[in-house]
Amino acid sequence: MPVSAIRTITKNQNGVGAFILQCKRIDFHYCDWEGSSKGMRSFLRSRLADFARANPAIEINVSPRPRKQPILRGVYVNGRDKQICVRNMEPTQIIKKCELLRDASGEPLRRDTKPVKSINESVRGVWSPYHGAQFKI
Amino acid sequence: MRRIPRAACVRPAHHLSLRPASRSHAVPFSSTGRCRKDDTDREQPAEADRKEWPLSERIRSRIWGVPLGQAPGREDPYDPNSPMRRQGAAEESGEKRKWLWRTGKKEGEEEEVTELERAEDVSETPEYQEAKTWDGLAWVGGEAFVEAMKPSPKYRKYGPATQLQETDDIHEALHRAVVEVLILREEGEDLVKACHAPITPELNWASSVAVQPSEDGESVTLEYHEPMARTYILELMKSNNESQSAADAEGKEGGVEDQEVGAEDQRAAAEEEQLAAENEQPTADEEHVTVEEEQVASEEEQQVTTTPGKASNAFEGYRHSNWMAVPLSDMELKFAVIKRAMQLTGIHVSDPAINDINTVGNLATAMITPPPPKKLAQHLAQSEELAELPNVRVFGRRVTPIDKEKRIGRWKIIEEELRRLDLPVTGHR
User: Fold this and answer.
1) Domain count, chain B
2) Looking at the structure, do residues B341 and B388 belong to the same domain, yes or no?
3) Pick from B351, B368, B385: which residue ends a domain?
4) Closest among B48, B5, B51, B334 to B177, alpha carbons compared
5) What is the ipTM for the molecules in this complex?
6) Count of CB pairs separated by less than 8 Å, A with B
7) B371-383, pLDDT tens digit by residue?
């Protein structure tokens, strides 16, 4: 029986190799004394563990910031960060903000007008006036 | 509900119309009878005269819409020429006339200054001397200030210098408090006298006593495993009571200061005595408990220096029976036990917690349970749920830029470079 080479089959991944969460770290800052941190303190006591367990890929740092408003700060793989002030917010509102930071790409917000965006070169190539059909009037 | 204006505040509309429509005399909402009377009785100052008044006074009169010197409220107390501060200065600087105008007095009546105004005038006190330099003045801050602000050493904390930490130690102290107070109750003495006994653990005879509450909790039986324990406990409290009363009697004659000093002497004597007792403590080889009685050098008072033996198999009452079930429903008993327990352990029990205490066991729980953390970081650090999550880190204090540099190992290089350039190594540590 002749030895046959292993046939290579192109994997159809639709351009996606693996999903990498863009948010790599979220910092939680609060104040022990101020009333604007009340919801944040409650969130850290009761809801933080669930959020951290559900998102093991995100590093979570909790540290006080005395006499300052409570904030969430998301750090992304592209080197950028996003900060959200959560003063006077309830724990349920803070969860929404955490999910927003988790799902964000880290890119600044831009208005998207075109439905498809690609970094690949066009299959058709760049248009040239010297090629293709010559039009004559 | 519709508001009905008070008659005293209501002013007829024609009152305003009677007034001249002058800018300086406009009285938009000054409706008190006193101001109206002043307006009519006195002449208004001319514009040139007005400029002699201080700016603050002119502004106040504009704000209130009243003539100069009639603005309600106190004058500017920081003005050096204010008559409130120094009447003499007002006279020297030609302000006398204004002062007369302001206070509503006439010429010659300025002597009738109220006692309050005189008290405020520091220039009249003979010992007052105005400082020309800052030498000799009291300074806020500095080493001398810190020394002066330290609490007086003559006041000592109620109880031991340090709180008991171990559960066994707290149980032992609590058992001792219960035994001492119950013995006093059997003797028909004042229960609070238990607090007069020394607090040193070496003199704990109560550990040889077993406390056995009845089933219904109404009565408590004391079983003495050391026959002389009851006598020694009573003697300890009695001797201290006598010396306390003697010290009190001396203190009454010599004042509070002497009383404090007397208590200090007594405490120091007790400490010396305890040291001596420690040295003469019987060895563990002796099976039976030896009793030593030692006379103190003092002629008037005799301290009991007998110490219980600490054999390895000695009976420890706090480890036996269900003494924690002793009810504290009797308020007098509860007060005495809690006071003595707080004195022996150094642990303060708050009033709301005392309200919830019904048995000795409740008291033990209240004393052993650590207080809730004051900081959120402490609370989170104690959380087992967060501790088992590998992706969560909790910091007890603010994470500073230096902390971030240290974490990546760059701070030592920065610090070395700053030192080499002779620059201050500062920052948010």
Assistant:
1) 2
2) no
3) B368
4) B334
5) 0.79
6) 59
7) 889 999 999 999 9
